[in-house]
Design brief:
The complex is a heterotrimer of chains A (377), B (293) and C (331).
Chain A: H1 2-21, E1 44-48, H2 53-62, E2 69-72, H3 76-85, E3 90-93, H4 99-104, E4 108-122, E5 132-133, H5 135-142, H6 152-157, E6 169-173, H7 178-190, H8 192-197, E7 212-214, H9 216-226, E8 230-235, H10 236-241, E9 247-248, E10 250-252, E11 258-259, H11 263-273, E12 301-309, H12 320-334, H13 351-362, E13 365-366, E14 369-370
Parallel strand pairs in A: 1-2, 1-3, 5-10, 6-7, 6-8
Antiparallel strand pairs in A: 3-12, 4-8, 4-9, 4-12, 10-11, 13-14
Chain B: H1 2-47, H2 72-102, H3 107-119, H4 124-138, H5 146-171, H6 174-182, H7 187-215, H8 242-250, H9 255-292
Helix pairs in contact in B: 1-9, 2-3, 2-5, 2-7, 3-5, 4-5, 5-7, 6-7, 7-9, 8-9
Chain C: H1 25-67, H2 87-118, H3 121-136, H4 139-166, H5 181-205, H6 209-217, H7 222-251, H8 254-259, H9 277-284, H10 291-323
Helix pairs in contact in C: 1-10, 2-5, 2-7, 3-5, 5-7, 6-7, 7-10, 9-10
The chains are: A alpha/beta (377), B mainly alpha (293), C mainly alpha (331).
């Protein structure tokens, strides 16, 4: 008995000491393509948006293994809180900073690293194909005024589909969610009651009773997939890759067409809106890709942002290696990393946004000096 | 005649209660059987892949790949977190229990014993929340790290170690202590080398059970260790753990991640159940042996 | 080191009764250092408890400054308008714990009675061990199992059935989706049964044989013996065990979070989605919209801590009274 415990303790001690001393680090600082000096392995931590999490996870896997990136998808508000508290190296949010949040964390850069679409998903057993929705009807579903699947409004939008006589179970996001921000922004544009009573925000309105709450885009997809007669809203990636038992709805855009979201029409939405970007440390609150003007644009498209401090001396424990790792990673994701976007149904950034991002990243300093970039191969 | 009816009725009632109580046991044990069964059915297939214990957890299924391995970083993470937690809680717990047990005349000893007893009932999420609350203000850059995760787990383990060590020390007969003192051995040597050694099997079992408890905890790690899908490179960064992996992947919409969660569940379940069964058997055997002397 | 050899040749054989007072200087120094060491470490256990309370109080300051004591009876939790009150989560915690007890107590007591009275000797050990193994299963595994095994069954069969036959009670209104207060309560019941059963069994076993034999000799059946001789004697211990189970139910996090539906509202029916204080912390401590919310969440955590503390102290006192051995290692 004692021998067993002793062996366990020895094994654990070896592992603990080994990891703290870096014995098991097989990563070495090999040279890069351009021959500059790579920093020693420093880990980066990011937190925030679940909308972009699949892409972040892919980047963490394909980036240089010398700089390990841990991304915690706890929701956009969590990302903003974490970067404000400086518990992480970068935050990620689909909701841009509010003026109050900018004031609480001065010196944060907003860097759009990708764009995605928010789509309605629904679980209707026996109903094939994709249902048509308008923003107006979606608002009525989610505020509880439209309660039945075969109501007149829904049936009118889908005359050829036999909708069941069942109560609609709307599934919203719990906690502070950038996806909710985008979705409620769209609902506020399309439905005056919603705009008047609830507006847009990262929290789903709490005075709307009824419906289920789910945590994260993943939880939303799981809940809709396992709850019959439910409807929810998730990022395009989750809608298309879950392999789940839900349908993806079409949303009407300003030209009247019902658009089934895909990589093409979200990309064209971004291209057609061509938003003017503020400076890195400026106010991004009004940047929106909603209701893009093109005939085949998907109306609920959004940029998603990485939040970092412009002056990395804001962290008391940073080293030059750490700062360089962060800058290298950021540069990589907006350039080389963009090739991972489309296969995962995220919109690759057009060149003008990449340039703006690069300018912002170049403005980052540590120890009073600019940080040299050294992208590993 | 009435007398016999009443007697028969009473007997019938007693037998009915016996049957009902037997059914209660079956109802109570059903979840255990169900959990183990489902874990085998849903996780067994995944567990026996070559790389399950060494590969990193899979990303979401995509057009590129859809893997159902592995849990390597989380096993390592659990080991590291338990290592740190044990490194704190075992010395602290044993020494505190020695104080409470061997120096009991002082009211402080009883206060410590009582506090430890009460601390075993504190919800584990509170342990994680208060550690987070402290570090996010004073040391934000290591708020998400193996250090804070280990601290949170040690807050859970220490009271358990204190209690079990105390029980183990209490069972050591006073004659042993008196004999040691009569031989002129100093109290501290007597305590450490004789009394504690005599109680060592019980203490070791208690430590093992505390470790198994900590190995299964996810709540206190949600805001401290945070979780990670990569092999850890150091202790000052977020780190994965088996219960965290199970939690995150259980809620995932991707079937490959859910499968990995079931595999991890089966592994963790088997580990915890087997260790528990073995240590209870050993406790039983020790009790028999002690009772015999 | 041979324990039979005196540590120092210069020390004279010491009479037992005066052992602590007759030491050489060297021995006294070793003893003093060791005493100091274990005392300091012992006090650190108390420090841990104080640290938990202290840090929670410190973090709650901001919320307390804004809401004062009205936080305790505030029924609105709205991160958007920065209004926070703990009542919805108190309601969720108390409701799920109460229903869990309703389900768990008969099953746990029944099992304890079976294990102590009716079970054949060869079955008592293994069955008791199996029930205790239930306590070793991690909470997150219970939640995972509940989500994938129990919840679909609840949604498809049990809840519609309850709605159909017992809907008139008003308890089973609303759409039955399976992720709600009822499912959470059922999972909690499963998790606290081993606690209640173990304590009940220990206290029933502590009943003196004489009591039981007296009843049996008067012609009582097994059940009557239990009812008349054992349970009254063990009553405070059993109640203590039940209260311990209550304390555990109120603090459970992972399993509840996965099946309760996560709605920050007071539940109006058993099919309502709800939130306990524990699941609130798990869901929103990181995913929050600002520091005031964090402070409010930690204040809610403080409330939970205090309530569970009181419940546990009451339970321990009741259990100690019966077992008289300072309590076993019951969790």
């Amino acid at each position: 008995m004692i021998a067993v415990v002793a062996v366990i303790i020895v094994v654990i001690l070896v592992v603990v000491v080994g990891y703290s001393a870096g014995w098991f680090n097989s990563k070495s600082s090999t040279s890069s393509t351009t021959g500059c000096t790579l920093p020693s392995a420093v880990s980066l931590t990011g937190e925030g948006s679940t909308l972009v999490a699949p892409l972040m996870d892919q980047w963490a896997t394909s980036y240089w293994t010398g700089s390990l990136v841990t991304y915690d998808a706890a929701g956009s508000s969590a990302g903003i809180t974490a970067i404000t508290a400086k518990t992480v190296d970068f935050g990620a949010s689909d909701a841009p900073l509010t003026p109050a949040q900018r004031a609480a964390a001065p010196g944060l850069l907003t860097i759009p690293e990708s764009a995605g679409g928010v789509v309605p998903i629904y679980n209707l057993p026996g109903v094939a194909g994709s249902l048509d929705f308008t923003g107006n009807v979606l608002a009525q579903i989610f505020d509880g005024s439209l309660t039945n699947w075969n109501s007149t409004a829904l049936q009118a939008l889908n005359p050829t589909v036999h909708l069941p006589t069942q109560t609609i179970v709307p599934v919203h996001r719990t906690g502070g969610s950038g996806t909710t921000f985008v979705f409620t922004s769209f609902l506020a544009l399309e439905n005056s009651t919603w705009a008047h009573l609830y507006g847009k925000g990262t929290s789903f309105p709490t005075n709307i009773t009824g419906g289920l709450g789910a945590s994260g885009n993943g939880g939303e997809a799981t809940t809709v997939g396992t709850t019959q007669y439910s409807i929810g809203y998730v990022d395009l990636n989750y809608a298309l890759t879950s392999g789940s038992s839900f349908g993806v709805g079409n949303v009407q855009n300003p030209t009247g067409n019902y658009i089934h979201a895909n990589i093409t029409n979200t990309e064209s939405a971004l291209a057609d809106v061509k938003p003017t970007l503020p400076a890195g440390t400026g106010d991004w609150y009004n940047v929106s890709l909603l209701n893009a003007p093109g005939a085949h644009d998907y109306p609920i498209t959004t940029l998603t942002y990485v939040l970092v401090y412009q002056n990395l001396n804001a962290y008391s424990t940073y080293t030059a290696a750490h700062a360089q790792n962060l800058v290298d990673f950021l540069t990589w994701i907006v350039t080389t990393g963009q090739s991972d976007s489309a296969p995962l149904y995220y919109v690759p950034l057009p060149q003008y946004i990449v340039s703006a991002d690069t300018t912002s990243i170049d403005s980052m300093t540590f120890g009073g000096a600019a940080i040299s970039v050294c992208i590993p191969s | 005649m009435i007398h016999f009816d009443r007697h028969a009725r009473r007997k019938l009632l007693s037998h009915t209660i016996a049957v009902l109580s037997g059914l209660a046991v079956i109802a109570v044990l059903y979840p255990l059987v169900s959990i183990v069964y489902e874990a085998f059915v849903l996780g067994g297939g995944v567990l026996f892949q070559a790389q399950f214990f060494t590969a990193v957890p899979p990303n979401a299924c995509s057009a590129l790949s859809c893997q159902t391995v592995g849990i390597g970083p989380d096993i390592v993470g659990t080991l590291i977190l338990i290592g740190i937690a044990s490194g704190i809680s075992v010395p602290v717990g044993v020494l505190a229990a020695i104080f409470a047990s061997e120096y009991r005349a002082r009211g402080l000893g009883r206060a410590i014993s009582f506090t430890a007893d009460v601390l075993t009932g504190v919800p584990s999420i509170i342990m994680g929340a208060f550690i987070y609350g402290y570090f996010v203000i004073y040391y934000p850059t290591i708020a998400y790290s193996a250090y804070t995760g280990g601290l949170a787990l040690s807050a859970i383990m220490t009271p358990i170690v204190v209690r079990t060590t105390e029980e183990g020390l209490r069972v050591v007969p006073n004659s042993v202590r008196e004999a040691a003192l009569a031989l002129g051995i100093t109290k501290w040597k007597a305590t450490l080398r004789i009394v504690l050694i005599a109680a060592l099997p019980a203490v070791a079992t208690g430590v093992l059970l505390a470790i198994m408890r900590a190995a299964g905890e996810a709540a206190p790690l949600l805001f401290t260790a945070l979780g990670s899908n990569l092999y850890p490179t150091g202790l000052g960064h977020p780190i994965g753990a088996l219960p965290l992996l199970i939690y995150f992947f259980a809620l995932s919409p991707y079937s490959n991640q859910v499968k990995v969660a079931w595999g991890a569940t089966l592994f963790l379940l088997l580990l915890i159940l087997i260790v528990n069964i073995v240590s209870r058997l050993l406790i039983h055997r020790m009790a028999v042996r002690m009772g015999g002397t | 080191m041979d324990p039979l050899t005196p540590s120092s040749p210069s020390s004279s054989p010491v009479p037992q009764s005066e052992a602590p007072h007759r030491r050489t200087d060297r021995h006294r120094w070793g003893d003093r250092v060791f005493f100091g060491l274990v005392a300091v470490v012992g006090i650190s256990v108390i420090t841990l408890a104080a640290a938990i309370v202290g840090i929670l109080i410190y973090s709650s300051q901001q919320s307390f400054r804004v809401f004062g004591w009205s936080f305790l009876w505030g029924t609105v939790w709205s991160p958007d308008s920065n209004i926070f009150g703990v009542v919805p989560f108190m309601a969720g915690t108390l409701l799920t714990s109460a229903i869990a007890l309703l389900i768990a107590v008969p099953l746990a007591l029944g099992s304890a009675i079976f294990l102590t009275t009716h079970a054949p000797r060869w079955l008592r050990g293994p069955a008791g061990t199996a029930i205790e193994l239930l306590a070793a299963v991690p909470s997150v595994i219970y939640g995972f199992w509940a989500l994938y095994v129990i919840h679909p069954y609840m949604a498809s069969t049990i809840e519609p059935g309850l709605h159909q036959y017992l809907g008139w009670t008003g308890l089973f209104g609303g759409t039955a989706v399976g992720l709600d207060v009822l499912t959470a309560s059922i999972v909690l019941a499963v998790m606290i049964i081993p606690t209640i059963c173990a304590v009940s069994r220990d206290t029933l076993l502590a009943v003196p044989q004489a009591q039981k034999e007296a009843a049996l000799s008067l012609g009582a059946t097994d059940w009557e013996t239990t009812r008349v001789a054992s349970i009254p004697y063990a009553r405070s211990g059993i109640i203590g065990g039940i209260i311990l189970g209550l304390g555990r139910a109120m603090g459970e996090t992972m399993a509840v979070t996965m099946v309760i539906g996560n709605a920050d509202r007071i539940p109006t029916s058993l099919f309502s989605q709800g939130q306990t204080i524990a699941s609130l912390i798990a869901n929103e401590l990181l995913s929050n919209t600002g520091p005031l919310q964090v402070s409010a969440i930690l204040e809610a955590g403080l409330v939970l801590f205090v309530i569970v503390l009181i419940v546990n102290i009451v339970a321990r006192i009741l259990v100690w009274r019966v077992l008289k051995v300072g309590g076993g290692v019951v969790e």
